[in-house]
Design a protein that fits this description.
283 residues; Jelly Rolls; 8-stranded antiparallel beta sheet; 7-stranded antiparallel beta sheet; binds 2-acetamido-2-deoxy-beta-D-glucopyranose; Glycosyl_Hydrlase_16; Beta-glucanase-like
Length: 283
């Protein structure tokens, strides 16, 4: 009897774990994913990720990124935790960039998705905290300047606000067709700090770059779209849709956009970004 009861629990446990697997989507095949398996307190798989160590000196941000499991760790529950910490008067945090790159293919739809939640600290203690799931054009790794390399922000939030931002940056700085430094973005209201699926879809099935689209979704609700003819510059559009891209997961602290932490701002797990999986699909 006990034995039978034990066996009957196994499928339930299996279901709970597979919630963090990249889901199947009809009409798509899964091309690449990291589901962040492993015991708690380990760095993520460094065959998949470059773990930054140092201060990038961008956007007047405060944090120093550390290649430390204190700042980027597998949770032991098939998730990645990116954790900012206030260490004395300075901040450390985590940033990982995929070694994997992909290029959305002509004639196909390509999806990039992650399941993300935010640490449970009260929103009033998150001034200056800036989590992000985004993509950069791989050409930046061989000297192409930003934003000509192309940047697609699938999800950013600032200051704990329950507003998700999806944005492209492209072309020249300042100004240009992406209106830098603002970029071209859309927003969505986030129901709570808990798990949501954040996705962009490139649709290159139309056979004409002007009618190709990039579309942003929270779970399955669309909240932003750009079309080739809105950008109206084939070279720039190509930097966002037809060149190799890599994933970035990070939590920045302070900087031009969010402003700086205040006396109430807390670091630690309650301020983290937690990621269930990152996946790329193709039709
Ligand atoms: C979004 O999807 C996740 C599962 O991937 C689910 O846990 C969550 O409740 C959904 N959010 C809403 C607002 O329905």
């Amino acid at each position: 009897m006990h034995f039978a009861a034990y066996l009957s629990l196994l499928p339930l446990l299996g279901t709970a774990v597979s919630a963090w697997d990249a889901p199947s989507y009809s009409g798509y095949r899964l091309v690449w994913a990291d589901t962040f398996a492993g015991p708690s307190g380990q760095l993520p798989n460094e065959n998949n990720w470059n773990i930054l160590d140092g201060n990038l000196g961008v956007n007047n941000e405060l944090q120093t990124y550390r290649r430390s499991a204190r700042n980027v760790q597998t949770s032991g529950g098939n998730t990645l935790q990116v954790v900012p910490w206030k260490d004395g008067s300075s901040w450390t945090s985590g940033r990982v960039e995929s070694k994997y790159t992909f290029t959305p293919q002509p004639g196909r739809r390509t999806m990039a998705e992650a399941q993300i939640r935010f640490g449970g600290n009260d929103i009033g203690t998150k001034q200056g905290i800036w989590p992000a799931f985004w993509l950069l054009g791989d050409s930046i790794r061989s000297g192409t300047p930003w934003p000509a390399c192309g940047e697609l922000d699938i999800l950013e939030t600032v200051n704990g606000q329950l507003t998700g931002y999806g944005t492209i940056h492209c072309g020249v700085y300042p100004g240009g067709v992406c209106n830098e430094p603002t970029g071209r973005g859309g927003t969505v209201s986030i129901p709570n700090q808990d798990w949501q699926r954040w996705r962009i879809v490139w649709d290159r099935t139309t056979g004409d770059w002007r009618s190709e689209t990039i579309t942003w979704f929270m779970n399955d609700s669309q909240f932003h779209q750009v079309r080739g003819d809105q950008i109206n510059d084939q070279t720039v559009w190509t930097s966002l849709t037809a060149k190799p891209l890599f994933f970035i997961l990070n939590v920045a602290v302070g900087g031009n956009w969010p402003g700086y932490p205040n006396d109430r701002t807390l670091g630690g797990y309650g301020a983290m970004m937690e990621v269930g999986y990152v996946a790329q699909y193709s039709s």
